[in-house]
């Protein structure tokens, strides 16, 4: 009987964790125009540009990209596959805009 209770408790905890993860990923994947949640661009860009040698330039570009895409990749560089919109923005010269 104790094994059954432990198994049920474990399954309940697992179900709650999966449900939470699905909600988090669903909120990150929504577009702002479609009723999605707007992220904190300032905080995410400060983290993204923390190791940049030209911090003000990095923050300006990152905030522009974040406001357009509502997404900033994790970490200080790379990981652009998490935000396809962020990774695809370019300058007038054809160079990648977002740090």
TrEMBL record:
Report what the protein is called.
Answer: Gibberellin-regulated protein 3
Q: Which GO terms describe its biological process?
A: gibberellic acid mediated signaling pathway
Similarity remark: Belongs to the GASA family.
Q: Does this entry carry the keyword Nucleus?
A: no
One Pfam family cited in the UniProt record for this chain: GASA
Keywords of the record, alphabetical order, are:
Gibberellin signaling pathway, Signal
The protein's matches in PANTHER family, at most eight in alphabetical order, are given as: EXTENSIN, PROLINE-RICH PROTEIN, GIBBERELLIN-REGULATED PROTEIN 2-RELATED
Signal peptide as annotated in the record = 1-26
Record bears the keyword Signal: yes
The record's section on InterPro entries has: GASA
């Amino acid at each position: 009987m104790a094994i059954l209770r432990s198994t049920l408790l474990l399954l309940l905890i697992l179900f709650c964790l999966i449900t939470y993860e699905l909600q988090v990923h669903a909120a990150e994947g929504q577009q702002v125009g479609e009723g999605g949640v707007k992220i904190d661009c300032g905080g995410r860009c400060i983290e993204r540009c923390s190791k940049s040698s030209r911090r003000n330039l990095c923050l300006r570009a990152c905030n522009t990209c974040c406001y357009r895409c509502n997404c900033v990749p994790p970490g200080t560089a790379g990981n652009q596959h998490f935000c396809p919109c962020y990774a695809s923005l370019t300058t007038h010269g054809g160079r990648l805009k977002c740090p």
